[in-house]
Design brief:
heterodimer, A: 245 residues, mainly alpha, B: 221 residues
Chain lengths: 245, 221
């Protein structure tokens, strides 16, 4: 197993795997998200209390799942970069950060739009919303820190340390609805006793959730490939400049 | 042990000689608190209700403002490299620096807090929990803030970034520091909140020293 993980660190091998995976993953992502969103927005039952407003759930909940999932992936990549010094792990962690920040922003905005008709307010400072906002700031801090250094490698290591330290926020987000008296709904899907949500709503939700997950993989692979290409261009430009000079 | 105490003594001596810097943090604390009556109006009832929050938040901001100079002066004149090379582990060096930082900012802020409470019409029962909370919370702030201070060493415009990095880490301390005051004011027991603040300090000790030491080693390469 360690050998397999170490072998993943080679950029050439990564390019081969990424090129093989990307077309299928893209099709899968489009298919899953398309089916899930159309099913959820069009064909799933309205809520007995909220009516049709509940349909935001099919965007809001998967985005929120991805927000925390991206951070967990980023923290694991950062930890493996700090321990084994895999350059690719550093690249991947920094590529994942803006994707995670976007998912968090989507979750916050769609949640706000959902809260206005149902709770009567755009925002409330309860534990779940506040801890997700803190997650958003952690992403922004990570992106700012990795860009703040002239030496890119040092920026990567500083950002990796920050990602690992900030991972403490993840269990706080997950359990915030249990530990505190919050306005936000408690866990309905990922619970010890199983989901409390009806199957007619659960299926489109899981489809969209899986679709967002595959979308994350697709975006991450594309970003890593672009970054590797950008670095190769930089090396070539530098070689040409020094060759001329 | 000698080296540990020597580092604390050195920082304290330097701060008293330079004088201005430690006083700057306290000055910021007092001035920022003074701004609030101008902002929300001088009504004593209103100020009394938000007094604990004002004092806590301003203590956080004062700590954040002071982190930039925690390591920068030592980095600039080469002391940091010497500190990293000597036999005492870097984690303990960081702990010593956090203690001296706390003595100069956190402890001073805690001692000034009752006076600020008087000016803000803080309810009488709130003074005890406020001071106890600040005593437990400000060392955690010094420890966790060291991570941010060390991470931005060598970054361009690093000082501005420290706030963004450490404020998410400060939030639990703030939340439970305030809840200690609120609980006392509604007659609930104080001990659970102080125990949680103590737990946060216990977590901040290893996380702060190891995290800051890792960031310092990164900065010294």
């Amino acid at each position: 197993m360690p050998n397999f993980l170490h072998s993943l660190a080679s950029p050439a091998r990564f390019q081969r795997i990424a090129n093989a995976v990307l077309p299928w993953a893209s099709v899968l992502a489009i298919g899953l998200i398309g089916t899930g969103v159309v099913w959820g927005l069009g064909f799933s039952p309205p809520d007995y209390q909220q009516g049709d407003t509940v349909r935001v759930m099919y965007i809001h909940v998967p985005a929120a799942w991805m927000a925390t999932f991206c951070y967990a992936v980023m923290a694991l990549l950062s930890a493996s970069f700090l321990i084994w010094k895999h350059q690719l792990a550093d690249l991947a962690a920094r590529a994942a950060s803006p994707i995670g920040a976007s998912f968090t922003a989507i979750a916050l905005i769609t949640g706000s739009l959902w809260g206005k008709p149902t709770w009567g307010t755009w925002w409330v400072w309860d534990a779940r919303l506040t801890s997700v906002l803190v997650l958003f700031f952690l992403y922004l801090g990570h992106m700012a820190l990795s860009a703040a250094f002239d030496d890119r490698e040092r920026g990567g290591r500083a950002a990796a340390i920050l990602a690992c330290v900030g991972a403490i926020n993840l269990p706080i987000i997950k359990y915030s609805v249990e530990w505190w008296n919050t306005l936000h709904q408690g866990a309905s899907v990922f619970r010890m006793d199983g989901p409390t949500i009806d199957n007619s709503m659960l299926w489109p939700l899981l489809l969209t959730g899986l679709g967002f997950n595959v979308l994350f993989v697709v975006l991450l692979l594309v970003r890593i490939k672009s970054e590797l290409l950008a670095r190769r261009i930089e090396v070539l430009q530098r070689a040409r400049a020094s060759g001329r000079g | 042990m000698n080296a540990f105490l020597a580092i604390i003594a050195r920082d304290l001596r330097l701060a008293t000689r330079r004088g201005g810097e430690a006083a700057l943090t306290l000055g910021f604390f007092v001035v920022a608190i003074t701004l609030f009556p101008f902002g929300v109006g001088p009504e004593p009832e209103l100020l009394g209700r938000i007094a604990a929050g004002i004092i806590w938040v301003t203590a956080l901001l004062a700590a954040t403002v002071s982190f930039d100079r925690l390591f920068r002066a030592d980095m600039d004149d080469g002391t940091l490299e010497l500190l990293a090379l000597q036999p005492l582990p870097l984690e303990l060096v960081v702990l010593a620096k956090a203690i001296s930082h706390w003595l100069l900012t956190g402890l001073a802020v805690t001692l000034l807090a009752p006076l600020m409470g008087l000016m803000l019409n803080l309810p009488g029962a709130a003074y005890g929990p406020l001071i106890a909370g600040l005593l437990l919370g400000t060392p955690a702030l010094s420890l966790l803030g060291g991570i941010g201070a060390a991470l931005v060493l060598g970054a361009r415009r690093g000082g501005a970034l420290i706030g963004l990095l450490v404020l998410p880490l400060f939030l639990p301390v703030l939340i439970f520091g305030i809840s200690a005051v609120e609980a006392t004011l509604i007659g609930m027991p104080l001990t659970p909140h102080l125990l949680i603040l103590g737990a946060l300090l216990a977590v901040a000790l290893p996380v702060g020293s190891f995290g800051t030491a890792a960031a310092l080693r990164l900065a010294l390469e």
